[in-house]
Amino acid sequence: MVRWATVGLSILLGFLFTACSGVATVPGTAATGNPTSAAPARATEKIAPVDTATPTLPPTATFPPLPGPFQTSLLNALDTPHAYLKDTCRYLYDKWSSGNSAPGTVAMVVMFHIITDAALTDPNQISEFNFRLLMKSLHQNGFQAIDTRQLDGFLEHNSRIPARSVLLVADDKHAASYFDVLFRPYWTSYHWPVVNAWISDALTTDELWQQMEGLNAEGWVDYQAHGVVSDPITPASPDAYILSELNGPMEVFQAHFNKKPIAVIWPGGGFTRHAVVLARQAGYRLGFTTNPRGPLMFNWVPLAEAGDPKRDSWIPEGPVDDPLMVLPRYWDTDAATHLQEVIRIGLDAAAYAQANKTAELEYYSLTCLPSLGAIP
Question: b vs e for 321-358, b when ≥16 Cβ sit within 10 Å of the residue's Cβ?
């Protein structure tokens, strides 16, 4: 009995002490000060200052979903856009940075095999007349030529390039006169470079090397690798052959052009997943097929996952799982017929990006801002 009386007296004294001190305990508040009920505070109670710090999102917080990749009906139904960047935050940072290419920027890769002013005797040939019509159409439709390093920067980091860009690729070995007659006028008038897919065989004469070294020194002929023997790589190709085709140009380019190629233009359009792995190990950053599936955009490359009976010579690139090493190219003979298609894809992609910009920036703000900072 005495024990309970003592406890009661302690409680009473504590209450009187609190009342006399002028500071009341908020009803429903534990000793730690954390609210345990929604009871309102009295007018005489001291209210804690509001915490203005950015609240930490609870572990169960949900983030706004990102829109899916841009799709278009202008591609063949079996050719679908493939993304290749794994870091979503870095992708959004590069996509929306004001110093980079605007969404909808397109790059069209066009390959030239033989441009001739003689009678056409091969389906891979294009007449000089039609070649000049194509170049005129490119210019009239607002395209500007870029080189391989510019394309690499665009595809990897969305580095700024013209909104409508074209990579002009002249396959195989040609004398300096070929470039002087056909391509130099566009370098002089529009500052358009041209890529030469150079075959690094041992049959090149000293005179031809001097011509190529001279063009390389001028800076407007961009030499990239096109093998040594330049026969197509197939699943039956031994490693010795594949490595020779990939490593041979590295040595030759260093000796004659004082650089190493960053792109392999797959000879005859032949490639395999294993060859792509070896090309990466050799130091190549880009690879080009002969499949004209569509234009290129940042983190967007049209490829096929399976073969198509209607295009049985086109090797499906999707299984390679490395889009940048199996980039599509338009054929010179029908590239002009695809110009409006390429332009429309770029415009539609730009509109799609703008329609989803708010959602993407909200996602970036919630998930990426702490690690990458504000987008410039």
Answer: eebbbbbbbbbbbebbebbeebbebbebbbebbeebee
**HEC string for 42-69:** CCCCCCCCCCCCCCCCCCCCCCCCCCCC
Q: State the DSSP H helix or E strand holding residue 325, giving kind and residue range, or none if neither.
A: none
Q: Are 67 and 360 in contact (CB under 8 A)?
A: yes
pLDDT category of residue 59 using cuts at 50, 70 and 90: low
Q: What CATH number did the domain enclosing 153 receive?
A: 3.20.20.370
For residue 223, the enclosing domain spans: 91-359
Chain-centroid distance, C-alpha 211: 34
In a domain, 46, yes or no: no
Taking only the tens place, the pLDDT of each residue in 187-233 is: 999 999 999 999 999 999 999 999 999 999 999 999 999 999 999 99
Q: Establish if 271 belongs to a structural domain.
A: yes
- The stretch 43-70 carries a mean pLDDT of 58
Alpha-carbon gap, residue 28 to 21, rounded angstroms: 20
Residue 7 lies in a domain: no
Q: Is residue 47 part of a domain?
A: no
Structure tokens, 200: 């690094």
Q: Work out how many domains the chain is built from and give that number.
A: 1
Instruction: Look at residues 365, 297, 233, 359 and name the one whose alpha carbon lies nearest to residue 72.
Output: 297
pLDDT digits (tens, 9 = 90+) for 27-44: 333 333 333 333 334 444
